[in-house]
Amino acid sequence: MKEQFLDNMDLERERGITIKLQAARMRYILNNEPYCLNLIDTPGHVDFSYEVSRSLAACEGALLVVDASQGVEAQTLANVYLALENNLEIIPVLNKIDLPGAEPDRVAKEIEEIIGLDCSDAIHCSAKEGIGITEILNAIVTRIPSPKDTAGGPLRALIFDSYYDPYRGVIVYFRVVDGTVKKGDRIYFMASGKDYIADEIGVLSPYQLQVNELYAGEVGYLSASIRSVADARVGDTITHYGRKAENSLPGYAEATPMVFCGLFPVDADQFPELRDALEKLQLNDAALKFEPETSSAMGLAFDVGS
């Protein structure tokens, strides 16, 4: 078995943390009934709260995972308030109960006092030892509401993540909220006003697996030979070109940059290349903001915040 299966960045695996959100689809059977679970693994650190806000806009519920030895931390409060703002069903989970210093009862009481969540049925688990995993999956099925059946309406899909592939262009991760989308459909991005043909759609298992159609409630990816990073922004709504939705989806909370710097190219002729590189980087980082500036000493540059 592979540890940290969804953490595929070197820094994530080295430090044992999640930096980049990852989506995965899995099949689960409870009481002989098959279920399809769309899971989005988000970072827990407060510095990556924008990743969490993007994910919550595409979910019905959330697992609030708290270290049973550390208790409630700053990022716990920040993330749970984001979930409450999105009216999600929250399931408290006390992790690392296998540690000698674990105090699940104390931490459960702490959650109730500080956050106000009922922890009488909080799940005790250890991801490392595999304890409580079945209980967590059962709770997801029984306590988190299923997506509404709105497959008959006009397509509305929320983009919650994207990245740039040098061969395929922009790859969009999205959640279908209303309607359906098929391979070959002519789709329309409501914020940018651009339209494309969906060359490929699929699900994340967590590897990309092509399918012919995605329905309301499902999470997947989309490739449409999109070359301009500005045409498929995170938070935009996808609809059909020939049957446009009346209103776009609310999207997610805008990120606020916390760290700023000035970037100056060594050669002034490289300024357009630097701009293109920042635009591609911005596609993968919703908190990245930049604007051109001029210095009398160093010439053209970009003021960058993240």
UniProtKB/TrEMBL annotation:
Subcellular location(s) per record? Mitochondrion inner membrane
Show the GO MF annotations: GTP binding; GTPase activity; ribosome binding
| Top enzyme category | hydrolase
The reaction(s) catalysed by this protein are: GTP + H2O = GDP + phosphate + H(+)
How does the record say this protein sits in the membrane?
Peripheral membrane protein
CC per GO annotation: mitochondrial inner membrane; mitochondrial matrix
Residues holding GTP? D41, T42, P43, G44, H45, N95, K96, I97, D98
Which UniProt keywords are listed? GTP-binding, Hydrolase, Membrane, Mitochondrion, Mitochondrion inner membrane, Nucleotide-binding, Protein biosynthesis
User: One Pfam annotation, family name?
Assistant: GTP_EFTU_D2
Name the Gene Ontology biological process terms. Answer: positive regulation of translation; translation
Predominant cellular place of this UniProt entry's protein:
mitochondrion
Name the EC number(s): 3.6.5.n1
- Please give the CDD domains that the UniProt record associates with this protein: EF4_II, LepA
InterPro entries with a match to the protein in the record = EF-4 (IPR006297), EFG_III/V (IPR035647), EFTu-like_2 (IPR004161), G_TR_CS (IPR031157), P-loop_NTPase (IPR027417), Small_GTP-bd (IPR005225), T_Tr_GTP-bd_dom (IPR000795), Transl_B-barrel_sf (IPR009000)
Q: Which segments constitute the Tr-type G domain?
A: 1-148
Q: Which HAMAP family match?
A: LepA
- Quote the function comment for this protein: Promotes mitochondrial protein synthesis. May act as a fidelity factor of the translation reaction, by catalyzing a one-codon backward translocation of tRNAs on improperly translocated ribosomes. Binds to mitochondrial ribosomes in a GTP-dependent manner.
Q: Which family does it belong to?
A: Belongs to the GTP-binding elongation factor family. LepA subfamily. Belongs to the TRAFAC class translation factor GTPase superfamily. Classic translation factor GTPase family. LepA subfamily.
Protein name per UniProt: Translation factor GUF1 homolog, mitochondrial
Question: What organism does the record attribute this protein to?
Answer: Ananas comosus var. bracteatus
